[in-house]
Structures are given as C-alpha cells and as structure tokens.
Design a protein that fits this description.
alpha+beta, seven-stranded antiparallel sheet
Length: about 290
Amino acid sequence: MGRVLLFVVAVLSSSIASAQETAEEFESKLGYRTGVVDVGDGLATLRLPDSFRFIGPEGSKRLLVDAWGNPAETAEDVLGMLVPSAVSPLADEGWGIVITFDSDGYVDDEDAGSIDYGKMLREMQESAAEANEERTAQGFDAVRLIGWAEPPHYDAAAHKLYWAKELAFGDSPEHTLNYNIRILGRRGVLVLNAVSQMGQLEEIRSSSQALLPAVEFNDGHRYADYLPGTDKAATYGLAGLIAGGAAAKGGLFKALWLGLLASKKLLVGLVVAAAAFARKVFSQKTAEA
C-alpha cells in the first residue's frame, strides 16, 4: 500500500520470546551496525554518530515484536531502528527510534512561516479529547495531550523538522514523551519517531540533535529533486505533518488501539493512532476555516 509508519516503544520490556534464550544471546542476533548505513535500498544514508547503533529491518521486527511485545503488524514496513550505544535496548532505561518512510508524496513547506503552533496545539488537544469517548468505550484509558515538550522547529534549508509532545495516559502520574523527526524528500517523508518517559527528554533531545545532520536522502530522492506536475504531491503541508502525518488510512486507528496492552508498556500503536486521528480532525478544521 506504499505507506510506512514509524513506531518507537518508550518503556521497554526485558522479556524475550524464548525462555531458553538469554538476553545476551537475543541481543547478539539483532545485527548491530555502526558508521555509514544505507536505508531503504538506496533511499537514504545514515552517518551515525558513535552514540547510536543501527538495527536492520529483520532485527527491528524481532526487537519490536519478540522483545517488546508489540503486535506483528506494527513492525511491518520498518526500515530499521536506532538504539543508543551506551545501553541495551532490553534494559529498563533503554529506548530506540524506529525509522520508516511515508510515501504520501512531496510535502509543500510554504506554510512553514505562517503556522500558529499555539492554535495548532489547542486544536490537537480538542481532537484528542473528542477521541477519548471512543477510547474509553472500548475499554482503553483516555489520552491527554499535555502540550509541546519541544515546540516544532523547521530548518527550511535542510528541509528537516522536529518536535515533541507530552502525553498523559489515564491516571498514570508519569507522562509519556513522543519525540518526532521528519526529513522531507522528493516522494515522501523519512520518519524517525521515539516514545519514552518524560524523564528522558533531555537525553533524547540531545541525541536527536546529533542525528539531524546524520540523516540525508540520496541523490534522486532529495527534496530539491521534486518534479512538479510529474511527482506525487502530498495533500497536506507541514501543519498536517505535525498534526499526525498520514497514518489515518486503512482502518489503522482501530487495529492499533486493539494492540495496546493493559500493562501500558506498549505505546507504539496508541501514539500512532492518536496522532493519525488528530491529523485527520485538524485537517478537516483547517479546510472548513
């Protein structure tokens, strides 16, 4: 279907698929890579800082599904993951960034200078509140968008965007951090998404800033390579991208909600679904205005 979603789990589970396999044995099979890494069969190149290791698609699926317990469908189309070099992804303090590619097309950035991020936040909060009735009816906790943990920043020269949201799940006293990086390209957006606890904000912010210059589309896939009238263009701009991207396709909202376990440790599906719904409602409101 030509769409790739980006998912990252914030709170990690140390359990693994086989009781006979030790954590060390499991981790040794993830296929860590460092240095210069090709992503998506020539789509993009990562020049990794020493602080990160790369895991390919197969290792990423194994980590996401077998170790972290996510439903198998949430690991489909994953191009790879980045995990900190200094900590095991199986440790409680471990975290990672999942890389995917959204092939919805070229995202026009003409609205970059006119976006009212305060107004956008209020509309996203309203959208999240509207969705809570359906969530609670299905037996899930309500989700509140507390605010920007990192206000959106767009580098118009590099065509790179990042922002972070603070979320509250049910009555949990510990809030969740959803940190987003987007690299705009000719035919879509390279998506890097991290979900963790708010206490890791400074660590993830620092690490993410080191990643921004390390991720580039290859020749032929860059933003500047776009051919108007020939290449596909996305139906939304930067505002729609920030509000949730294009994940609201194919009935994904309900499917991913069902993937959330009561333990609250599996946040992948929940965050993606909430973002998708927020973008959908935000886009409708923008069109009406």
